[in-house]
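My current task is to audit a protein record that another person submitted. What it holds is a sequence and that sequence's fold in token form. Thanks in advance; the entry in question is below.
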Amino acid sequence: MKGRLILVGIAISAVSHADVIIDDFTDGAFLLQTPTTAYDTQTGSVPNIVQGFRMAQAIVGGHPNNRDLLMEVSGGKMFVEAGSGVAGSATLQWFNSYSGASSGAGSPNISDYVPFAPTLDLSGEKRFRVHYENADQTTTIFIAIYAPDLLHTRTLALPAAPGSGIVEFEFSDFTTGSSSAFANIGMIEMTTAITNGNDITYTKFEAVPEPASAFALMSGATLLVIRKKRRKRVS
């Protein structure tokens, strides 16, 4: 009976941490389409976005064919599409609010950013998970977390293979910084590198815990076996 209680207790503790949705793109539809650097923000609180606010920045470094860089949220997806020859980046940022103009040409002013309030605590999670589809070429994705002062960051860049898939950003692989950084986040940023007119569609961005359930169940089963062997030796 005690062995069963041990197994049940471990299984319960293994599922105690839940996934944290940063953005699933089911709300807050918007369209930013531009041949030059520009930004746009969500107005009002948007459900299913961490603290209800996101900003999009299209940074265009080159467009020899006079084509646009498009960022669009629609139907539960985030589309990043670049015309032939376009180079630059498409950045999404999640923080509390923005006190400057809600949209405009050029880049937003960092002094107008208001960090998460309260700060975001992801210390119970182990990695960011980015779900994507329809990548027409290998695409580099950068994830950054900012301290509440919006100055100190930890970053990690990983490739998304052509087609559809999931890219996992282990917290332990982020650039050096305070080990407590994930417990006190002021802003999260995801950037898609645009190298030559590449397209990709995102379907979810989340923070997830260690997949410990299976390990915990195996550990519990091992404890039961050990207890049974001990009982046999005693008998």
